[in-house]
Amino acid sequence: MHENAPIGKQTSRKAKMKHTSRFTLWVAACACASAHAADSYPARSIRMIVPFSAGGAADIIGRLMGAKMTETLGQSIVIDTRPGGGTVLGSEIVARAAPDGYTVGMLATTLAVNAGLLTKAPYDALKDFSPITLAVDTPLIIVVPASLPAKTLPELIAMAKAKPNSLTYGSSGQGTSGHLANEMLSYRTGIKMLHIPYKGAGQALIDLLGAQIQMVCTSTLPALPHVRSGQLRGLAVTTAARTRAAPDIPTVAEAASLPGFRASTWYALFAPARTPASVINTLHRSAVQALKSSAVVEQLVGQGGDPIGNTPDELRQFLQTEIDVWTKVIRQAGIKPNN
After folding, report:
1. What is the SS3 assignment for 326?
2. Distance between CA atoms of 46 and 53, rounded to whole angstroms?
C-alpha cells in the first residue's frame, strides 16, 4: 500500500483484504468438508425413489438391487414408492433432491417418453439427473384375464374391431411404455380401446385379475407370476424376439403379423445432477456388483428381465437415443398429454 495514501482508503483496503481472506478460507473449508463427505460416503442410509406403486417392476428391481447394494455399501437402501403424474412426481423428487448421494431414483422409460410428451415438465431429463447405470431391460407382455374369450392376440384385435371402444386397457400411467405400446398397437391395427391410466402396474394388474379391465401391457416382472398361475393369459410380448422366461408366448410381430413392432421397458439408476463424481462411482460399483449377483440375475432373468449394468456415460447416450425414438413415436401416433 502506498505510504501517502489517505488513512480512510488504507482502512478500506485492509477491510477488503480481510474480507477476501475470510471468504477464501470459507470456500476452502467448504471444499474440504465436501471432499471429506464424499470420501466418507455413505455415512447413513440412502433413499431410493421409485416413481411407481408398490408391486410393479421398478419396485421389484429396486428391492432386489437395494438388498445387495446394502451389503456392499454398508448402509441400508430404503425404497420410497412415489407414484403419480406418469412418474413425474417421483422423478421430480429425485431431480430436486440434494446432490449428496443420499437420494437416488430407479427411473424408467417414462423419463425419455415424458421428454417428448410433456411441454412443461418440471425437470430436464438430460440436465437434471446424474446417470449411474442402466439396470434392467424388460419386454412388455400383453395380458388378459383368463376368463376373456380371446385366447390369442388376433382374437383380441377382432373383438376390439367388432365393438370399438368397448374394451378397456390399463397402464402404469399416462405416457408410460405400456400406454405407448398399446397406442402403437391401436395405430397399426386400426382398433380403438379405452385407456384407463393407473398409478402403477400393481394396481392395474389387480383390476385385470378382477376382470374390471380387459387388457394390460406391462413389464413381464409383475405379470408373469399371474400368467404362470393361470389367472392371466399372456397373448404376446413386445420385443423383437421371444423372452427366455416364457418362450411359448409369441411376439406381437409374430402373432399379429406386424413386422418391426418392438417396445421394451428399461429401468435405470439416477442421482440428482451435480452429485460428486466420487459418489457416482461408489454407487455405480455397488449397483453393477448387485446386477452381477447370481441371486439377482436368476430372479430377473426368470421373470423376463435382462440385467445390464453399463457406465454412466453409456446410460447418458442411451437416454438421448430413447428420447429421440419415443418422441418420434408420440408424434406419429398423435399422442397428447392426458388423452
Report:
1. helix
2. 19
Report the C-alpha gap between 226 and 196 in whole angstroms.
Answer: 20
- The answer to whether 69 and 99 have CB atoms below 8 angstroms apart is no
The set of cell numbers assigned to 13 is: 483496503
Q: How confident is the model at residue 14 (pLDDT cuts 50, 70, 90)?
A: low
pLDDT tens, residue by residue, 267-323: 999 999 999 999 999 999 999 999 999 999 999 998 888 999 999 999 999 999 999
The class (CATH top level) of 139-255 is alpha beta
The boundaries of every CATH 3.40.190.150 domain in the chain are 46-137+264-333
Distance from the first to the final alpha carbon of the chain? 71
- Count other C-beta atoms under 10 Å from residue 274's C-beta: 10
Q: Which residues pair with 131 in a beta bridge?
A: 270
DSSP classification of residue 250: P
CA distances to 118, 123, 155, 174, 280 from 337, rounded to whole Å, are 6, 16, 30, 7, 33
pTM, rounded to two decimals = 0.75
Q: b/e string for 292-312 if b means 16 or more Cβ within 10 A?
A: ebeebbebbeebbbbbbbbeb
- Bridge-based pairing of strands 194-197 and 168-171 is parallel
The position carrying cell 385379475 is 209
Q: Does domain 46-137+264-333 have CATH number 3.40.190.150?
A: yes
